């Protein structure tokens, strides 16, 4: 049952984190909004400008790679210029405090690593590598983008960023590791995800079924809030994480 009031929710969340430790974070696009990267859904979201059926499926990519690469190069441009915000830094600090064991992220922006998080599971891949759709040769993306769009392999075929398009499987190791983390954690901190995209959206349920306490940080309610979430810290990720970290530093830890 979700906590709505009473004893300060930040204090309750900090106490649960400090006493149980063994926490895992699941993050989505919302955690990077304050780093200047738009989320996918909602009025300011990427999918308002780019229809996912035309830009985000593997079928669309294979049919018209040049068109999809236009969106991808705009996205990569934004990602390489973005810096971590207090929410990313808070999770990295929580790991250093010995409270957080890993971050499972649906994001492909690398901001958790830039903030200092060491164990990051990239559930939807990493666009800093490109892979040939024909011979599977790999290239660092920064080397290839800027040459021309769409970038091509030495074999002449199109390169794809190593991210998961709709219709593609989750990288096997990322999925296995995430499910293990979900089963074994005592607290799951869910930050900035609408939890609408499977299989990532199933991770909170796995954690809950294995006894984890679920803390959600999101300005909105999501499909998790009513039935899965134990404490909803309603607010933007950076402010909520700053407040949570302050509470942890001041004694709950
Ligand atoms: P969404 O765009 O679906 O959801 C973003 C969530 O962040 C929403 O619940 C917002 O309320 C919340 N949010 C917005 N601003 C926030 C802020 N400042 N602080 C905290 N939360 C905020 O993004 P995801 O759930 O990450 O997949 O989307 C999941 C997947 O759908 C993505 O990884 C991507 C997309 O299609 C693929 O491309 C395979």
Gist of the model:
The protein has 253 residues and is α/β, with parallel strands linked by helices.
Protein model, in words:
With 253 residues, the protein is α/β, with parallel strands linked by helices. The protein folds into 2 domains: 1-37 and 84-124 and 170-253, TPP-binding domain (Rossmann fold), CATH 3.40.50; 38-81 and 125-163, SIR2/SIRT2 'Small Domain', CATH 3.30.1600.10. 39% of the residues lie in helices and 17% in strands. The protein has 11 helices and 9 strands. It has helices spanning 9-20, 46-49, 52-55, 58-63, 65-81, 86-96, 111-115, 141-144, 172-184, 203-209, 237-252; strands at residues 23-27, 100-105, 120-122, 125-132, 138-140, 159-163, 187-191, 213-217, 231-233. The strands form 2 sheets. The chain has a 6-stranded parallel beta sheet, sandwiched between helices. Strands 5-4-6 form a 3-stranded antiparallel beta sheet. Helix 7 (111-115) links the parallel strand 2 and strand 3. Helix 1 packs across helix 11 (237-252), helix 6 packs parallel to helix 11 and helix 9 runs parallel beside helix 10 (203-209). The longest helix has 17 residues, at 65-81. The mean pLDDT is 93.
């Amino acid at each position: 049952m979700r906590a709505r009031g009473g004893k300060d929710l930040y204090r309750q969340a900090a106490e649960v984190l400090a006493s149980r430790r063994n926490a895992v974070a699941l993050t989505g696009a919302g955690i990077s909004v304050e780093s200047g990267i738009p989320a996918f859904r909602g009025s300011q979201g990427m999918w308002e400008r780019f229809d996912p059926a035309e830009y985000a499926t593997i079928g669309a990519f294979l049919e018209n790679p040049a068109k999809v690469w236009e969106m991808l190069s705009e996205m990569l441009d934004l990602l390489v210029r973005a810096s971590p915000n207090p929410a990313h830094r808070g999770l990295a600090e929580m790991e250093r405090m010995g409270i957080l064991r890993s971050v499972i992220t649906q994001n492909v922006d690398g901001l958790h690593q830039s903030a200092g998080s060491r164990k990051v599971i990239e559930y939807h891949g990493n666009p800093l590598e490109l892979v040939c759709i024909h011979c599977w040769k790999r290239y660092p993306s920064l080397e290839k983008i800027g040459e021309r769009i769409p970038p091509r392999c030495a074999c002449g075929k199109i390169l794809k960023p190593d991210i998961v398009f709709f219709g593609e499987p989750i990288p096997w190791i990322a999925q296995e590791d995430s499910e293990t983390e979900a089963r074994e954690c005592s607290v799951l901190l869910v930050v900035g995800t609408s939890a609408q995209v499977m299989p990532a959206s199933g991770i909170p349920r796995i954690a809950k079924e294995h006894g984890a306490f679920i803390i959600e940080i999101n300005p909105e309610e999501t499909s998790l809030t009513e039935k899965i979430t134990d404490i909803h810290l309603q607010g933007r990720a950076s402010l909520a994480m700053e407040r949570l970290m302050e509470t942890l530093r001041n004694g709950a830890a």
